[in-house]
Amino acid sequence: MSGRLLDEGMNQVSDRRWQVKVLPHPDISTNDSGDRVTISDFLEGVCRPLDCKAVKSASVIMDSHVGIVECGSANTIAKLVAEGKLAELPPPLRFSNMPPATSKIDIIIENTGDGCMNVLKILYLEKTVPSKAGIAFCSGTPLVPVFRNGPHAVKKALQWALERVHGHHVHWHSLQDKSSCNLTRSTSATWSPETDDLSEGIRFINLHAPECDARNEQTFWILTHIRPDSGSPIAGWPEVKVRGMAQNKSRGVSGAQSMTEFPLNTYNLKEDLVKHILPLLYPLLLTTAVIIAGNPGVGKTPAVIAMAMALGRFHIERLGLQGVLPGWRRAKSLDNFRQRAPQIQEAIFLDDPSKRKVDVADLKAFVTVDEDGTVEGRYCDARLLRNQMRAYASNDTGEDPKDTKPGDTTLSTDSFMKLVDPLFGDAHIKDKLAVLKRSTVRVFTGSALYLRFPSENPDFLIHRIVQNDLHKDLLEEECKPVYNMYKSGILVYAPEYQAQVDKEQEMIKASVETMSSFSSRDEYVSHCNTQVQAWLRPPRHLPASPDDPSDEDPDAQRASMGLPPVFPAIGNGPRPNRLGTFSYPSPAKRLRVKTPSLEPLPKTETETDQDINLAAEPGMTADEEAARHMHN
User: Fold this and answer.
1) CA atoms within 13 Å, Cβ hemisphere of 304
2) What is the pLDDT of residue 350?
3) pTM, whole model, 2 decimals?
4) CA distances (Å), 522 to each of 292, 454, 464, 516, in order?
5) Where are the domains of the chain?
6) Adjacent-strand bridge partners of 19
7) How many CB atoms lie within 10 A of CB 569?
8) Which of 377, 381, 383, 370 is nearest to 289 (CA)?
9) CA 349, 355, 295, 411 torsion-angle sign
């Protein structure tokens, strides 16, 4: 790995007039001229192996497949990459772990003409990731550019080298000459950059500008990057404009930050939750909040975030929003939500707040999802947007109810109110019911999960759920390694992630359509209660009576499965205590008593023999004789 080709590119385009631009749409082209280099030559002249010992982190990763058997046409593969359908790539080219949705993927496909092909995938990550996480993305040979000083010069030289590779290309980046643009420099009285240049510069500031300026870190960054010879996307920009943008970024991150990347989705939760509860709950989250309380360690936080991302994707598609991502903002105080304007695709997640800092009036405003509202902040109120998902999580609950039995599927109102009493403190009962009217409550205890749908009725139905230990863990076992990597700072998506997201959105659309068929929310909630109880108490179908000609013979069904008949015919077949078949003796030999199988014990002197009439009356059956003998 000499790096010769990269060095040549740095000599050609390191001048400040060259810049790398991110295209709004991928550029698809074919380079087949004679002066092009092969993918193997590119790897030799630009790349080095991605070794965890030598390379600690990377933001540009190349996944190479050299000499593999053809697995599809170049046009088909390129179209899938351009449309972002990475999960539909042929298995040899599919990523081992799906990259983040914010990343950009370039691909070069070179057909060698002997039934084989060379493929190079270039992964541009929004943030630098550890080498181990980068290797986990690759299904081929992981590579990175050779080390050279000057990050901007390396980026420009990399694009220069990629343009000279033979094959079918899909690129999200373009190397352009800034001297051909009409960009007015900061020395001009008017500053009017092109829209694309402005968008790229703002994106560059949002990603790289320091948030702190206590030691002039932000000032130093601004002054070095606005120099005309810096080669950055903001080279030549007025300092006052760049400083204002950087300060806006600093102010925006002072409260609860907006998070937009999460590796789990609805179908990473327990099957019973996905099948029987969430289809009923998702439509309600458009107009009501969700309160989750109870034991720690059951997966309340990842479950809420997965639901928030699902509803965020639904809002984006429903409203046709552009340039936004689904996400959530999480904080332990309502005051932390006041720094940023609310967005409908961003859920508000109040996680384990202090009871003394959350007034019941603010709690009622927080769970009123069907209206715009405000909650009290330190200097100004925090705004809340209508239909924006709002979730409240807490570990504060009462003791596990003692008046339940293992087979119970409901809980009494008094026991439930004692269970959730720590959430409300000393609030009045009417305030508690006002909160319960506007929220779905799920409480996890050591013995069961308790579910209450929105209603102001104090005697409303509370479901008790113990199926498959749903109250102990909400996450499927196979998704826990991915979630643990996320908590350690490594974002990895499972191969089936996108397919599960598509299935999730179809489920939400169908559920919302079902709710719209009801005339009111109360009727829909009644429907939800019926569905949950039907799941918890399924009907038991008894076998049909043998004398019922309308039903199919149950014995025939059981015989087809190798089972004995339900009702064996009376008088036929062996009996449990019978050693053989019973034969009626002739009337002349009938006895009134059975012959013992053992010899009789010797009589004592006090016992006397009694005469037994052994003669049988003619015309009597055995049953009549037995009955007569019993009554004598």
Assistant:
1) 28
2) 92
3) 0.61
4) 21, 8, 21, 12
5) 4-179, 195-252, 258-533
6) 176
7) 9
8) 370
9) negative
Residues in Cβ contact with 9 at an 8 Å cutoff, skipping those fewer than 6 apart? 156, 157, 158, 160, 161
| Residue 440, beta-bridge partner list | 290
Phi–psi pair at 439, nearest 5 degrees:
-150, 150
State the alpha helices, DSSP H only, in 274-339.
278-284, 300-319
pLDDT computed for residue 631 by the predictor: 64
Average pLDDT for 606-619? 52
Does 550 have pLDDT greater than 70? Answer: no
Q: Which residues pair with 58 in a beta bridge?
A: 129
Residue 165, number of CB atoms within 10 A of its CB: 21
- Token pair 């009597």 is found at 620
Q: How far apart are CA 255 and CA 401, in angstroms?
A: 38
Residue 252's nearest CA partner among 327, 340, 336, 337 is: 340
What is the distance between the alpha carbons of residues 31 and 390, in angstroms, rounded to a whole number?
Answer: 51
CA 138 to chain centre: 23
Q: Lowest-pLDDT range, 284-288, 422-426, 544-548?
A: 544-548
Q: Note whether 78 and 160 are within 8 A (CB).
A: no
What is the CB neighbour count within 10 angstroms for residue 262? Answer: 18
What one-character DSSP code corresponds to residue 467? G
Pairs from 315-321 (Cβ < 8 Å, separation ≥ 24): 315/344, 315/345, 315/387, 316/345, 317/505, 319/344, 321/345
3-class secondary structure for 590-631?
CCCCCCCCCCCCCCCCCCCCCCCCCCCCCCCCHHHHHHHHHH
Chain-centre distance of CA 545, in angstroms?
48
Residue of 496, 497, 493 lying closest to 123 (CA atoms): 493
Tens-place pLDDT, residues 278-287? 999 999 999 9
| 289 CA to centre of own chain | 19
User: CA nearest 304: which of 273, 343, 334?
Assistant: 273
Query: Edge-to-edge strands of the sheet including 104-111?
Result: 18-31, 167-177, 104-111, 116-130, 57-69, 141-145, 47-49
Q: Which of 473, 509, 39, 469 is nearest to 297 (CA)?
A: 473
CA 485/CA 481 separation, integer angstroms: 6
Q: Which residue has the tokens 């500008």?
A: 209
At 608, give phi and psi (nearest 5°): -120, 150
Q: Can you state the percent helix, strand and coil of the chain, rounding each to 5?
A: 35, 20, 45
Reduce the secondary structure of 70-99 to three states and give it as a string: CCCCHHHHHHHHHCCCHHHCCCCCCCCCEC
- Reference 353, options 382, 393, 380; nearest CA is 393
Strand ranges, E, within 478-571? none
Q: List, as own/partner pairs, every contact residues 477-483 make where C-beta atoms lie below 8 angstroms and the sequence separation is at least 24, other chains included.
A: 479/263, 479/264, 479/268, 482/263, 482/264, 482/268, 483/263, 483/264, 483/268, 483/302
Distance, CA of 337 to CA of 15 (rounded, Å): 45
Cα–Cα distance for residue pair 385/250, rounded to 1 Å: 23
DSSP secondary structure code for residue 589 in this structure: G
User: Which residue do the tokens 């999580």 mark?
Assistant: 393
- Nearest Cα to Cα of residue 116 among 68, 58, 66: 68
Burial class (CB in 10 A: 0-12, 13-18, 19+), 599: exposed
| Residues 379, 364: Cα–Cα separation, whole Å | 20
pLDDT over 50 at 382, yes or no: yes
